[in-house]
Design a protein that fits this description.
By secondary structure, this protein is an alpha/beta fold. The longest helix has 19 residues. It is elongated. The N terminus is likely disordered.
């Protein structure tokens, strides 16, 4: 095996399966179409990539630069990435960003690209300094800003950028992509396991791939139980059983199960409340009853956050289910 092939095989899956071209992007057709149009004209504006984490913003920037400059876009100094969460002050803008932006590149493309990842972490002073930098060096440098929360980027910067919005990845696309990775890696993965990964990652492809690799390190046969073991999350079946015990008025059994989840399995109270929230919508009760349960769920969440005992608060929530069902009978 060649050294290069061996190194590729040792990469984390999130790097190994990172999109290399715009065509490999998952479910971001509008963004890809816009970037391809820009590539055809070579008229590259400053751009702001905004959207939830794990939807391909940084990967799109790298794929765009690779198709614009060629495969050596990194080694030739035509593209550089700075993470604003590491260095978020005004000195970073005055020194690193300015120094790179003012240098004139070689080659047919008359400008470089600077990717400012997690730009929503920049302080207000740094953003105002950056606004002026964008104006001064637009002839020699184009800026791509990546932000999870575009509302944290000041309006003067947004108005200078073409804003491309990335949407959360839908369930079917995430499951399809994970299935391809599992096939390439020789995994036997159940459909329930894929559903569990999506439920936990909520459209974040980066998180989904990392969960899959962690599960594969435990077993090449990946089922739902393996996924819950990796993420330290309570299974839907146990949460459903807890709610059904409450609906049946079996509070003692519900308390025993709750203690097992909290103390033996080590489930975090916040994770358990989130799992209960997801299951409430599947209960065979009226919409009015669901509203009351969600109201009680919010109160339990607040009380735990304020220092309340998780076991007491969650058991009180389950008890409200039993009292509610008793009244309706």
């Amino acid at each position: 095996m060649a050294v290069e092939e061996r190194l590729v095989g040792e990469l984390p899956w999130i790097e190994k399966y990172r999109p290399k071209t715009l065509d490999e992007m998952v479910d971001q057709e509008e963004v890809v179409r816009t970037l391809k149009n820009i590539l055809q004209t070579k008229q590259v504006p400053h751009m702001l990539f905004a959207g939830p984490p794990g939807t391909g913003k940084t990967a799109s920037a790298h794929a765009f630069a690779r198709e614009l400059y060629g495969p050596n876009y990194l080694t030739e100094g035509l593209f550089v990435e700075i993470n604003a969460s590491d260095e978020r002050g005004i000195q970073t803008i005055r020194e690193k960003v300015k120094m790179y932006a003012r240098s004139v590149p070689f080659g047919p493309i008359g400008f470089r690209i600077l990717l400012l990842d997690e730009s929503d972490q920049l302080t207000d002073d740094a953003q105002h300094a950056f606004r002026r930098t964008m104006e001064q060096f637009s002839a020699t440098c184009r800026f791509i800003l990546v932000a999870n929360y575009s509302n944290r980027i000041i309006e003067p910067i947004q108005s200078r950028c073409a804003v491309l919005r990335f949407r959360p990845l839908p369930r079917d696309k995430v499951i399809e992509h994970l299935g391809k990775i599992a096939k390439n890696e020789g995994l036997n993965i159940s459909s329930a396991a894929l559903e569990a990964i999506y439920d936990f990652s909520e459209g974040d492809m980066r998180k989904s791939i990392n969960i899959l690799q962690a599960a594969a390190s435990i077993s090449r046969d990946v089922d739902e139980k393996t996924i819950y073991q990796v993420i330290g999350y309570v299974s839907r079946g146990e949460v459903r059983r807890l709610l059904e015990l409450g609906l049946s008025g079996k509070i003692s059994e519900a308390r025993d199960l709750l203690r097992e989840l909290l103390y033996l399995q080590g489930v975090a109270p916040s994770d358990l409340l989130t799992a209960i929230y997801r299951e409430v919508g599947q209960l065979d009760i009226s919409e009015e009853d669901k509203v009351e349960i969600l109201d009680a769920l919010g109160e339990a969440d607040f009380r735990i956050a304020e220092g309340g005992t998780p076991e007491i608060q969650i058991l009180a929530l389950v008890s409200k289910l039993a009292r509610k069902m008793r009244k309706t009978r």
